[in-house]
Every structure is written in structure tokens, then in C-alpha cells.
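Researcher: Let's run the pair from yesterday's discussion. Sequence first, then C-alpha cells, for each.
Model: Starting with the first of the pair.
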Amino acid sequence: RVFCRVRPLLSDDVADTETKSVYFPTTTETLGRGIELLQHGQKHSFTFDKVFVPESSQEEVFVEVSQLVQSALDGYKVCIFAYGQTGSGKTHTMMGTPGNYDEKGLIPRSLEQIFESKQMLQNQGWKYEMQVSMLEIYNETIRDLLSTNRSGPPECGSKQHTIKHDANGNTHVSDLTIVDVRSSREVSYLLSRAAQSRYRRTLNLNDHSMDQQVQGVLNLIDLAGSERLSKSGSTGDRLKETQAINKSLSSLSDVIFALAKKEEHTLMVVNVSPAPSSINESLCSLRFAARVNACEIGTPRRQTSARQLDARFSYG
């Protein structure tokens, strides 16, 4: 499924505030699900599973995705990711505003829900061990953000990490630093610690139980900006970085359509700037999101086995 979120106009948006380029239709069929962009007098209409207007709160957005978070705890594979151009509100949607309780994003709210559910299940006799590892992928190089030996530029990590996939479709990264955690507050501290050297951050929570025979995966992802190379104005090292980002994003549609052959919950939150100066990039984002929304994914299947519970929660 695909959600669309339009951020409010900001004071530094270079645009004529009298000019409006984004509209929300109010017909019965599209109320709360439609969005229209006006470009050079031509109207472009899109319909998604949910459209959040600029006035929508962080809580309103999380209410719509909280059931997917619970699905991961119930043994399903879940992926929630934010897509859109730089400055369209992806990180605000995923992380929120540090220190502002009401402005918390999907990631801290999801962590709170996970630990609240953990406490409730522990009261029913469940036993949990939860671990955290954090990584970023920068210029196609994996970096361990919790390693105490990491120094120098991103390309000069002390270890070469590899990505592996097991027969059950689970993904593992070799030689990551792993930290035991007992609360969402401890995870928040580790997020802040990792953010000191970030370009992108990834959080993995591993939850183990020797008695319950279920597996769940929740991936929470803040992607890099999707603007085209000509729009970015990048040169030198920044050009290399932008090219690597665009190469990854260009493969995203292939990944989405490959998921159609599997049984997973996938939610894309496309973020859009309402500034008239961003109309071209907004239109590109919405067109891509519309293609993703047309992808039919099979009926999700609960992951059960006779092995220990291994629920992994990722943020990148």
C-alpha cells in the first residue's frame, strides 16, 4: 500500500505564497485519498490508500501504520519506508523532532509500541532478549555505527561487512556490533549516539524466544532524497554520492515488483513538498508512487517455525 504525505509550506520555501500547486479533492470517492498537482495549467490527479494533508499530525500518521507494526510482532514480514525529494519531510515523518514529544516520528513511536507489547506479553509469561545493531550504507559501503574502532572516512571502515540472506528470506549483516537493550529509552540513546556520524542510519532489533515458534520482521527506512541528478547540482564527491543514491533508488521499483511474488506487508510513504518550486520533483515522486501502488502483493503469510523467535526491526 502507499500513503502520501504533504508537508506544510516552510518559511524558507522560495515561492510565491499566492500561488498554489497542490490540491485535495473532496468528492466522496477521493476524500482522504486523492491529491492533485497543478503544473502549467494542467491538472495531474492521483489516488492512494491514504493522503495526509499538511495539517496532519504525527499521531494521525502513526495511527494508520500501527497495525503494521503489530503485524511484525505477530509474525509477519513488514517494511515501511519514506520516499521523496530532499526537504519533502521524510526524516520528519520517520524520526520527528528531537525532544518534542508530540512531534515524534514513526520510528520512535513504533519502538514504544514494540516495548509496550513486550511488557504486556512478559506479564503473560513470555521471555524476551532484545538486541540492537546500527549501520548505514554510504556510497555502497556498509558502516557499523556502534563500533568503537571506527574512524576516518566512510570508505575506510575497519571491517568489511557483507549482506547475507538465509533460506527463510531473512537478511543478516556480518560482524556488526550488538548491544543488549531493555527499553525504548536505551534504543533512543543508541540512535542519538549513531547519529553523530550519520548520513543514513539503520537499526536492527533482534528479539529471541526459545518457546514461541514465530518470526517477524519490521523494516523502518528513511531513504535518501530522490531528486534527479540535474536538480541536485552536485559536483566532486557529492556527485559520486548522488550517483550512488540514484542507482539505488532506480532499483527500488524492481524490488517493489519482486515483492508482488512474495507474501509481505509493504507500506510506502511518499513525501511531497507543496512549494511551487518543487512541482517537477513532486510530480516525479507521485508518478513513481502511483506505479508502486498499482503493484499487487499476495496475501501475507505468518512466519512460523519450530525455531526461536527472531524478530528484526530495521531503520535506515
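Model: Moving on to the second of the pair.
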Amino acid sequence: GGRQLLAFLGERGLLPGTTDDNSVFIYDCSAAEKKSQEHKGEDGQPVDQGSDTVLASTFSKSGSYFVLTDDSKRLILFRTNPWQCLSVRTVVRRCTALTFTASEERILVADKSGDVYSFSVLEPHGGGRLELGHLSMLLDVAVSPDDRFVLTADRDEKIRVSWAAAPHSIESFCLGHTEFVSRIFVVPNHPELLLSSSGDRTLRLWDYRSGRELHCCPLTSLQEPAEPWSDKRFAVSRITYWSQEDCVALSCDGLPVVYIFQLDAAQRQLVPRQLLTFQHRVWDAAFEEGHGLWVLQDCREDPLVLYRPVGGQWQSVPESAELKRVSAHVRMNWAMLEGCAGVDSGFSSLYKAACDNMTTYLKKKEERLQQQLEKKRRRAPPPGPSGPTKRMKPGELARGCSS
């Protein structure tokens, strides 16, 4: 995110982000056109115009297109070879996730209100069309490799599988997470399988058409208890996958680690392989076919680390010429990254509030009793010189004096 986009690391790694002369493509979102109507709410009154911060971005499957959305409610589409901005369109609400269809003909946009809109790639200036909606905030959206299904993940622990041709028709729900679902990923070379992560700190494997959970792996079981972040709540911010070796890598919101798993598709399970630890927070991670695993971390002197499998273990490759070249570009644009990358993704505000019902009930009961006592005190008549005065019937005073 940020006022600028440094498109060197994404779903497909480095190649889509570099230009023909091996320079890095940079786009300044604050310079993009803005439309006056996008700054008015439903009541027609002006609303917050945003800071041009990028909220979500993704490459198409082939890497031919790249799209981003920002907090000024713009959807900006690029061609990547050569890099060119094709269109700037307006979305209804601020978005949380984006994906291209497998055909690369449409962009699916999920927003905070729980809706998914589609935008045409072939008609880059066409408006959006409402496809489906949840009653809860959407956090991720994905499509099956054959474009038959749209998968959506929400704050209320649900993953919904809908028919793309008729989104009102629901194929299944994948239910089991106990906190918000932060990321979902359809495995490209095993298209019947889905990976999901959550604020409950688990990675799960699903047969998504039936909604059946195949395997659940608690991430906390893979870390050392002595680590300073071992008892911290966290959610996975990126699921990246290497088809060549059926390898899954997870980066987590604000943690200095990357989890590596092997997907055993035949046994329908995830096998933990390695926990990569770093001295600094990991901002992002992505596999690049033929190169390895790129990790972006919060360190200006050493912003990128490249890992490759050696003898069954992932090891860093410090002497790579490609690594040095791209790291130099990152350092040159560090001011942009430093101001935005690593900022909390917003997951911390999505956890359920812990509530002790009995304590809350007793506290409210005590407050009600105190209010009732206060009302009684206000209604009582003021006391006389020697306490409350008794009210006498007419003639009582005369009879008392005659005696």
C-alpha cells in the first residue's frame, strides 16, 4: 500500500513488476484522476476523500494485468507488458480484496459492506455490476480455476462457495473456523482443494464443493514457546504457493516468521516443513517459479531475502545477482515502503470481543438497583425539624389540646 505502488513483488513474484530495461515500475496513486461523485455518501453529503493508500492489489493469472484499489475508492487497471495504466474507475465502497477470473475477462472486487462487484477487463472503462453479497464484511475473494465458482470469506468465520453464473445459488459453506477468515486460496494444480487461514491461528484444507474440512493445522503448535510473539494473536496475511513442489508459504500480520508446508494432495493433508525466522517483521512473501521464495522484511539495509530448497531445507541465497539488483531498487524507494508497509492490516480490530456474561449481568443489575434507590430518594418528602412529619386528620389537633 501507500501513495505510490512499487510493483516488484506480487502474486507472481518479480517478473511482472519489472520493465524491459530491468528498472522497477512505479505508479503514484495520488496523481490518478478523481471523480467528484465518489466523495459523496448515500445522503449526498461529502465524505472522507481518503489518503490514496492502496488497500488491495493482485496480478492476473498470466501476469498480463495488474489491478489495485485505494482508499479514495478507485479501481486502477494496468497492462504489464509494457506497463501502462488502462483505466481508473470508481467503486461503491472501500474494498478489501481483489481477484481476476481465470479467463482474465473480469475483476471481482470485495468490499467492507459484504458485496462483490465485477468489472470488465476487456471494456476497461465499464462500470461495476453487483454479483453477490454477505451480511458480514468480506476479507477475501477467489475463483475456481475453471471460473465456475466464486469463493468468498467473511468476518463471521464463513467461507461461501457460489456459482459464478448464478451467484445467488450457493454450492456449499466451508464452516469450522472460530474467528474471521483472513485468506482463502484455491490450489491451481489441485483445483478441488482450498486453503484457508483465520484469526484462530489455523491453516485448513477443504474440499470446497462439498464444504468438507480435510485437515486443520494449528500454527501455534509449530513455534517455540520461548519466542516473544508466541502468545500473540495473529492472522495470516499472505498464502503463496509453488506448484512445482506443492509447497505452501504463509506470512503473518506483523510477525518475523514464514511458515512452510508441503501439500500432500493424495493424503489430503498439510505437512509442516520449516519455520523461517527473521530479525525483522515480514511484510510479504511470494514464490517465483524458477527462482524460489522472496521475502520482504522491515529492514532498509537488507529488505529482501531469497530462499531456495537445498537438500530438503529452504536456505537463503545471499549472493544472487537478481537479489542484489532488486534490493537496490527497494532501498531507493524505502521512504514509500517505510510509511505504509508493516502498518497493521486491520486484523486486530476483527477479533470477537471477549465477554463474561455473568459479570456483565451482575454489574448491570447493581447499576439498576442504584438507579431505583436514587429515584426513591428523590420522591421522598423532605424531613421536618425532628424527622418526618406525620400527617393528621382535621380536628386531631383540637382534641389533643383539650386534654
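Researcher: Give me one sentence on the second I can quote.
Model: Residues 1-6, 8-19 have pLDDT under 50 and may be disordered.
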